[in-house]
Amino acid sequence: MSKSILVTGGTKGIGRAIIERFAKEGFDIYTCSRNESELLTLKQDIESRFPDQKVWVKKADLSKKEEVLGFATAVKAQGIPDVLINNTGVFLPGAIHSEQEGNFELMMETNLYSAYYLTRAFTDEWIKRKSGHIYSIGSIAGLTAYANGGSYAISKWAMLGFTKCLRQELMPYNIKVTSILPGATYTASWEGVDLPIERFIKAEDVAETVWASYNLSPFSVVEEIVIRPQLGDL
Description:
234 residues
């Protein structure tokens, strides 16, 4: 029986790279995005390259609680994933005292609340199974304060705290919890920036790190992984 992975925000960047890495290893895929055409393109591409794997996609805006819960219900009708990657996120630069009104709410709802509600939707099943692995895709912005980070940094600090709490709560049930904290990763968010590509982490390297940490024995878990560009933070 194939294992499966749920990756939120799977059409681009880190999410897409993780999907490709796990599909290569025989995992069925569940994913979502706000862009339906990009989802269908992803589905067609992955299924053409990995014809034995099922790719299930659904349009959903995970900044909205009702859509998170609707997405979770739709996934459950298909099956319970073995791995959950809470990857959905949005970055809007700005200082706390002057950023645009509404930025705080949007980034907290997208970056944190989506992970909270989606994780809760599957936890009871994982506890019954006594298995599962939950990943939070955070950021070094959740470790280091920096100017112009604003509400994004707040949401990522909160995401790290959420993940640490999950680790303690689910430890007795053999459910693993890992926080991935990448630095600047070359994704669509950085398009147009006048910097050489070697100043960025490759999304594929983040995916390889996730895959490697997933493959430990049941006796070990990697709790936290910090990944930075070799030449340092931007």
